[in-house]
Each structure stands twice: as structure tokens, then as C-alpha cells.
Design a protein that fits this description.
Length: 426
């Protein structure tokens, strides 16, 4: 009963429009005070959670992606991929998915990928006669790769909350990320030949020299991505140090070599990154207070006991969690979902023998779905803004991708080595 009352109160505050951080803090304080715990413990819980070396990577990744966005680097990468794929039917859609995958290896943010690739790919695809719903759905779904392919901000937060290795979480994200890219590409090819893309004309072919020039312009961006990811897996630096290295390389590239960003744009990138970071860390701190309250009320243990008595198979547990996360994803941001739900579910994983690393990838896949489902799917609004189209058209475009992503959840459930092979063999 306590669990139901507490969660109902939290949902009521959220549905009333009160910000997530304030809602979590208010409920957490109420729980702590009701048990007679000294108020002095609340500031300690609030501030202690943000004192983390792992979370230092978050503002660095955000700043890197914002600088790349302001510098217009997406055009170089998109042109390079398109130069290799543009002479086949649906080639621009294929180039879009591949560009999203590469930029995901730098930014760690789905919204940043949507903004960067969307501003380039949407005009390119619509001008060539691609079906507009197909265009918007491809961009919105492709950008979700930003939080699955490492480095990923949600994976960093998950690792911190679940007390897992960030490197293991990053390694676990590679297989499912490639799986999702492959499934998206298959759909793009099928949809293109079903009328979603125009028939390729003679003018679509690209000569070798133009292809070489386009590839050469994109090499620095690809090099930054490989340096960041390769350095982590080679043990040269931690994920946080990788974020710092990526930021330095990005600054050198856009300021010294490309010279495509001015001081005012750099200042805007820093301000926007700082604002987003403060929002995220405020939610992290508030969730820690809320987590302290639910621990004092033994809610995670009550939920675990209920699951042990009523849910008897791992598959049924995953289906129930999927339903809960789908519902929460309709009105909660991904990081908030991790911070609210994960502490409650963690004790239940051992009951069904579910690996916490695998569960983290499953959780992030469900967050990806939240990014492209209304009413608060952020990618939908980014693509709507860039494409200047009604929201309902964007939603219709992402429906096939929602089905694909749901299918990918079941694929990694029945074939868990897609997730677990690299973390436990490297």
C-alpha cells in the first residue's frame, strides 16, 4: 500500500506539470521526514550524488556535440557517406542511418544527433523526392542510436546507479547498436523499393575524385570518434578522460583546421551545454533523495518480494517491465526513468538471474522508444522543428521503427550474447 501511495503521489506531481527534479525532491523529503530522519541528511544526499568522476563525462560529451552542431560538421560526414551510397535507390536514407551511427560515437546524445543530421538530411531527402513521412521517421529513429552506441549519457548514468563498469556498459552497447543499424537499413531498403524513395537516375552517380574529396573532409570527424572509442577499449583512458580527449580534438579541429565556428557560437555552445548539464545533474541529485526515501520505506524489497511471488519467469518479468517503461516513457525523460525505476527494480534482477549489464541495454532500448513516442518524445519535436511538419506526420513516420525496436528487444532477450559477448570477452 505504501508503494502504491508513494508512486501515485509522484505521478500526480509529474502530471500536474511540476518539474521532475522538484517532484522527486518533494516526495523524497516527505518520506524522509515522515520517518523522523534528521533534515541534515537531505543536503548530504542531494549533493553527494553529483560528486562523481563518472558523471563528469556528461558535460564534456554535451559540449562536444554542441560544438560540432554549431560548426556544421554534420554536412561533411553526410556528404562522405552519401558519396558512397548515393548511387543506389534509397541511398540517402542509408547514408542518413550510417551518419547517425557515426555521430552517435561522438555525442552521446540522441537529441544532438537528431539536430545535427536532421538539418542536413531532411532538405537533401525531400528535395530528391523521398516520401516525407519516411524521411522524418528515419531521422527521428536513427537519432536514437545516440544513446545506445557508446559513448552514451544514459549508459553512463545507468552504470553509476547500478554500480556497473562504464566500460562494460559501453562494450555491451556495440552489438545491439550494430543490430539496430542493420534492422534500420533493411527497412530503409525495403521501403525505398516500395515507393518511399525515387528511382535513381544517371545523375546520381558520383565520380571517384569527388568521392575521395568528400571522404577526406569527413576523416577528422571519423578519427575523433575512433580515438574516443578506441582509447576506452584499449585501456588508454577512462570514459571520462575519453570525453575530455574528444572535446580537445573537436576544439582543435573546428578552431584551427576547419575554422567553421566563431566565438559567439562557441559561447552559445558552452551556455547550452551548461544549462542541459545543470538540469540533468539536478535530476540526479533529486533522484538520490527520492531513492533514500524509498529505501527507508523498503519499497525495493517489497517490490522484489511481490515479483518473486507473482512473476515466475524472466520473460514475464521483462514483459511487465517493458509495459511499465512504455507507460512511463509517455511523459518522463529517459534519465529520469533510470533514476526513478532502476533502484526499485535492481533487487529483482537476481531473483530471475538477469545480468545487470544486459538489463542496462534493455533499459536504454526502452528509453529509445520513449524518445520517439508522444507526447514528450524529444526526437519527434526536434525533427518536427527542422522539417516544419505537423507532429502527427512525424509520429506516423516512426511507427515502423517502433515495431523494429520492439523486435530488437526480443532478439537480445533470446540471443543475450549479442549484448554480453564483448563485455565478458575483452
Amino acid at each position: 500500500m505504501d508503494t502504491f501511495i508513494i508512486l501515485t503521489g509522484l505521478l500526480a506531481l509529474l502530471l500536474a506539470g511540476i518539474p521532475v527534479a522538484i517532484s522527486l525532491t518533494l516526495v523524497g523529503i516527505a518520506l524522509i521526514v515522515s520517518l523522523g530522519v534528521p533534515l541534515a541528511s537531505i543536503p548530504q544526499e542531494f549533493l553527494g550524488s553529483t560528486n562523481s568522476f563518472i558523471l563528469l563525462a556528461v558535460p564534456l560529451f554535451l559540449l562536444t556535440s554542441n560544438i560540432l552542431l554549431k560548426a556544421g560538421v554534420a554536412r561533411d560526414l553526410f556528404d562522405a557517406v552519401h558519396s558512397w551510397m548515393g548511387n543506389v535507390r534509397g541511398g540517402v536514407a542509408i547514408a542518413t542511418i550510417l551518419s547517425c551511427g557515426i555521430f552517435s560515437a561522438i555525442s552521446g546524445s540522441s537529441v544532438a544527433v537528431a539536430a545535427m543530421i536532421g538539418t542536413v538530411a531532411i532538405p537533401e531527402m525531400t528535395s530528391r523526392g523521398y516520401e516525407k513521412r519516411f524521411v522524418m521517421g528515419t531521422l527521428a529513429a536513427g537519432a536514437t542510436l545516440g544513446i545506445l552506441i557508446p559513448p552514451s549519457i544514459p549508459l553512463i548514468v545507468y552504470a553509476a546507479v547500478a554500480e556497473q563498469s562504464t566500460v562494460s556498459m559501453f562494450l555491451a552497447g556495440i552489438g545491439p547498436g550494430l543490430l539496430l543499424i542493420g534492422l534500420f537499413l533493411c527497412y530503409c531498403i525495403v521501403k525505398s523499393f516500395m515507393g518511399g524513395a525515387p528511382v535513381v537516375g544517371k545523375g546520381e552517380s558520383v565520380d571517384v575524385e569527388a568521392r575521395f574529396r568528400a571522404t577526406l573532409k569527413a576523416l577528422p570527424t571519423i578519427g575523433i570518434a575512433f580515438t574516443m572509442i578506441g582509447g576506452i577499449y584499449a585501456g588508454a583512458f577512462t570514459p571520462t578522460e575519453s570525453a575530455a580527449v574528444g572535446l580537445i580534438l573537436t576544439l582543435v579541429y573546428v578552431l584551427v583546421f576547419k575554422r567553421s565556428i566563431v566565438f559567439s557560437q562557441l559561447r552559445e555552445a558552452i551556455a547550452e551545454s551548461g544549462l542541459t548539464t545543470s538540469k540533468l545533474l539536478l535530476i540526479v541529485a533529486a533522484a538520490n533523495v527520492f531513492g533514500k526515501g524509498i529505501m527507508l520505506y523498503r519499497i525495493p524489497y517489497e517490490v522484489s518480494s511481490w515479483i518473486a511471488m507473482n512473476i515466475h519467469t524472466p520473460l514475464m518479468f521483462i514483459l511487465v517491465v517493458m509495459l511499465v517503461l512504455l507507460l512511463l516513457g509517455l511523459f518522463l525523460e529517459g534519465i529520469a526513468m533510470i533514476l526513478i525505476v532502476l533502484p526499485i527494480l535492481m533487487p529483482s534482477l537476481s531473483i530471475h538471474g538477469i545480468d545487470p549489464v544486459w538489463f542496462g541495454i534493455f533499459f536504454v532500448l526502452m528509453i529509445e522508444l520513449a524518445l520517439i513516442t508522444p507526447p514528450v518524445g524529444m526526437n519527434l519535436f526536434v525533427i518536427q522543428s527542422v522539417a516544419r511538419s505537423p507532429l502527427k506526420e512525424v509520429v506516423r513516420g516512426v511507427v515502423p521503427y517502433v515495431v523494429i525496436m520492439m523486435a530488437s528487444v526480443f532478439i537480445i532477450y533470446f540471443f543475450p550474447q549479442i549484448v554480453l559477448y564483448l563485455p565478458f570477452n575483452m
